[in-house]
Amino acid sequence: MADKIATRKAYGEALAELGAKYPEMVVMDADLSKSTMTAEFKKVYPERFFNAGIAENNMMGMAAGLALSGKKVFVSTFAMFAAGRAYEVIRNSMGYPHIGVKICATHAGVTVGEDGASHQCIEDLALMRVIPGMVVVNPADAVSTKKLLAQVAETEDPTYVRLGRYSVPVIYGEDADIQLGKGNCVRDGKDCTVIATGIMVNEALLAAEELAKEGVEVRVIDMHTIKPIDREIIIKAAKETGAIVTAEEHSVIGGLGSAVAEVVAQEMPVKMKMVGVQDRFGQSGKPAELMAEYNITAADIVKAVKAL
Amino acid sequence: MSIDKKMLEAKAADVRVDIIKAVHAAASGHPGGSLSAADIITYLYFSEMKVDPKNPQMEGRDRLVLSKGHAAPAVYAALAEKGFFPKEELLKLRHIGAILQGHPDRKNIPGIEMSTGSLGQGFSVAVGMALANKIDGSDSRVFAVLGDGELQEGLIWEAAMSAGHYGLDSIVAFVDWNGLQIDGKNEDVITVTPIDEKFRSFGWDVQSIDGHDFDQIEAAVRHAESNPGKPHVIIAKTVKGKGVSFMEDQAGWHGKAPDDEQAEQAVKELGGEW
Fold first, then answer.
1. Which one of A169, A193, A227 terminates a domain?
2. Residue B274 domain-assigned?
3. Do A81 and A157 have their domain in common?
4. Has residue A99 been placed in a domain?
5. N or C, which terminus of chain A has less Cβ within 10 Å?
6. A98 touches chain B (CB under 8 A)
7. Are residues A134 and A189 in the same domain?
């Protein structure tokens, strides 16, 4: 059994490492530093950590101002209050002026668990990817979180990184080659492709394992970068496997499924199924229970592949 | 150092003429709030701020963030007058393909520090810039120009609270208090007063002045400079539409362009050539 680590935990460790590399780096949080793990940065660099208090809109505005004054800025809060509450500040004060703040939002999706629907953001990928020039990243595990964050830190683009609360298996070895903007084929197959993002990559791998027992060879792609999306890998999968299932811990409206469908429909139409939250709000429960309730498990991916 | 009032009055008149000409050429825009802020903006660009039109990104410069972004014509006129871009651009305001967008756009306009227009946000960004100054121990200053109606945005008070908390004394905010907003008088829409007590309670150093008196504007900035430790706000009482008889104190001129005849009259009243 692989180790289980929440991507937010990897984020905290990555911040402390990046802080050494970039003396101009500052981190802001909105009173959630112990949950988002920015407290790990604060421990090492207290003079470069600033709490905005429970004022997410102002945190985004101040982050833009810091970045315009030469700082490399990471800001964190829960996905609901970053992409949701502060949407228009991000759109007008980071997106439109193209300011390279890195918004690292934790507690995304229904696996937030017991806190319930008010805190389970299932719309953030849709909200962020519609902003022109915004880069959107959703890592699958702890290793890829660190590798992607190191690359995100290098860019000048405004970037949204979606992270989870829930501990998920580590998929990648430390030597894995993970490139921002490039989908990663984590299992090859010829019968169908599952394109997954975030914690659903592990579910997709489990589904592929199940299907292999029945002689169905599934290709699995980790689409950690939702935007700009890797069009080539999608078109190639459509051509070579003839069918695509997408899997995301997010609404099927506007997220990864939509992003993939936009490419497939225009470039290489093949049949698709989308595994994700079907136009519903979340609710309280344990993460595993919620994944079952919202039909975002390996079993649901198996079902979707068979239905194609 | 005393200010050159004659020069400032002449520059302010030029800025006002350019505001009218630009908004007229655009056939849309916001003359009222541009004219009310014109003296503050003229003072900052021509008598106060360390900026270089030949090097808009100059290290250590002072920055102006126009949080009431709809007053863009006033800043555009001042920037053109300073030589940041050719004055001909003013007549292309709001036209397709022009650099001068309806609201400030930092990506394409030399001298514009931040894209603004969605109210409240520029102030928050300016506070972030002031925090950067503090981190760096920089003596750069950040000037923010706010509208009075804009104070109704909750974000203003989130930003004010942060600036007070962190003691960001490199920010000097002007409130262009002309008393009017789109739907009428502030007090008939949503009361914003007392502005001074609000800012004071958020930890700010507060001054109240006549926003059309250059001596008072200058004295207020000097006071801010000599009182470190707190962020500074200068509540500047102004007249919306200042300088154009038929626009003064009229909410209707918040977001409406003058027609040919009105523009000609306005320019002549301001001592300009039509």
1. A169
2. no
3. yes
4. yes
5. N
6. yes
7. no
Query: How many domains are there within chain B?
Result: 1
Q: Say if residue A244's pLDDT is above 80.
A: yes
Looking at the fold, whether A130 and A193 belong to one and the same domain comes out as no
* Number of structural domains in chain A: 2
Same domain, A13 and A156: yes
Range of the domain at B53: 5-269
**Domain match, A152 and A11 both:** yes
A248 counts as catalytic? no
What CATH number corresponds to the domain at position A267? 3.40.50.920
Q: What is the residue-level pLDDT of chain B in tens, covering all 274 positions?
A: 578 999 999 999 999 999 999 999 999 999 999 999 999 999 999 999 999 999 999 999 999 999 999 999 999 999 999 999 999 999 999 999 999 999 999 999 999 999 999 999 999 999 999 999 999 999 999 999 999 999 999 999 999 999 999 999 999 999 999 999 999 999 999 999 999 999 999 999 999 999 999 999 999 999 999 999 999 999 999 999 999 999 999 999 999 999 999 999 999 999 999 9
Where does a domain end: A129, A146, A169?
Answer: A169
**CA of A245 vs chain B CAs: smallest distance (Å):** 40
The residues on B that touch A, with CB distances below 8 Å, are 105-107, 113-115, 117-118, 120-121, 123-133, 135-136, 154-155, 158-159, 161-162, 165-166
Q: Cα separation of B108 and A241, whole Å?
A: 45
Model confidence pLDDT, tens digit, residues A131-177? 999 999 999 999 999 999 999 999 999 999 999 999 999 999 999 99
Task: Please tell me which residue in A13, A17, A40, A56 is annotated as part of the active site.
Answer: A56
- Specify whether A158 is located in the same domain as A127: yes
Examine the domain organization and report whether A10 and A81 are in the same domain: yes
Residue A115 belongs to what domain range?
4-169
Q: How far is CA B193 from CA B151, B179, B199, B249, in A?
A: 10, 10, 11, 18
ipTM value for the complex: 0.96
What would the 3-class secondary structure string for chain A be? CCCEEEHHHHHHHHHHHHHHHCCCEEEEECCCHHHHCCHHHHHHCHHHEEECCCCHHHHHHHHHHHHHCCCEEEEEEEHHHHHHHCHHHHHHHHHCCCCCCEEEEECECHHHCCCCHHHCECCHHHHHHCCCCCEEECCCCHHHHHHHHHHHHHCCCCEEEECCCCEEECCCCCCCCCCCCCCEEEECCCCEEEEECCCHHHHHHHHHHHHHHCCCCEEEEECCEEECCCHHHHHHHHHHHCEEEEEEEEECCCCHHHHHHHHHHHHCCCEEEEEEECCCCCCCCCHHHHHHHCCCCHHHHHHHHHHC
